[in-house]
Amino acid sequence: MAKVELTPLRPWEDFFPGRDRFAKPDMKDMARWNNRVVSNLLYYQTNYLAVAVSVFLIVGLLNPLGMFTAIAVVLGVFLVSVWAADNRNAIRNFKNQNPSAFVIAVMVASCMLIAILGSVMVFMTAITLPLTLILAHSSFRLRNMKNKLENRIEFAGLKRSPMGIFLESLGQQEENIQKIQTFLEARMKE
Question: 30 - beta bridge partners?
Fold first, then answer.
């Protein structure tokens, strides 16, 4: 298995080359759109990380107290939930039997505390704005040959990256994309 390495930061001219390298995704072919998004997430992952960190820092600079409060609350609720799951049998059993519900409960508790302290919009902006920008870019940016070649190497297992591992854990591998495409094409013919 190849070691995990971060992909290089792509040049601005490649990341945002101009209007001719962007196109509206085909909403009728979800598998193709998904493939474009996955390919771009893998190829531009370092650029996306830089965008997310930049937006997070800008929002933090515009409202440092709100951002600090929100981060402190989320971190505090998370640490308390981990401690409680380790030290309280009822909570440990709930976490083991309902892991999704446990995560949702932690998120809801965090949001409620952040809302009480008045920083929910600051924190949500710092999270949702970068995700929206990344999804928009990965959806509209057309792939090039270098992008496709890098992704084939990633999917073949010759090279590993943090985004590749994340997408693999979500089941977004190339063979799954092909299965989805075949399934959707069969459904459209029926």
Answer: none
Mean pLDDT of the chain: 76
CA 18-21-25 angle, 5° bins: 125
Whole-angstrom distance, CA of residue 111 vs CA of residue 73? 9
If one compares 15 and 136, the residue with the highest pLDDT of the two is 136
Distance, in Å, from the CA atom of 106 to the CA atom of 102, rounded to the nearest integer, reads 6
Q: What is the pLDDT of residue 97?
A: 78
Share of the chain above pLDDT 70, in %: 74
- Radius of gyration of the chain measured on its C-alpha atoms: 20
155, 23, 165, 54: which is closest to 147 by C-alpha?
155
Helix 120-140, helix 30-43: angle, nearest 10? 110
> What DSSP line would sit under the chain, residue for residue?
-PPB-PPPPPPHHHHS--GGGB----TT-HHHHHHHHHHHHHHTHHHHHHHHHHHHHHHHHHSHHHHHHHHHHHHHHHHHHHHHHHH-HHHHHHHHH-HHHHHHHHHHHHHHHHHHHT-HHHHHHHHHHHHHHHHHHHHHBPP-HHHHHHHHHHHHTSSB-HHHHHHHHTT--HHHHHHHHHHHHHHHH-
Higher pLDDT, 139 or 148: 139
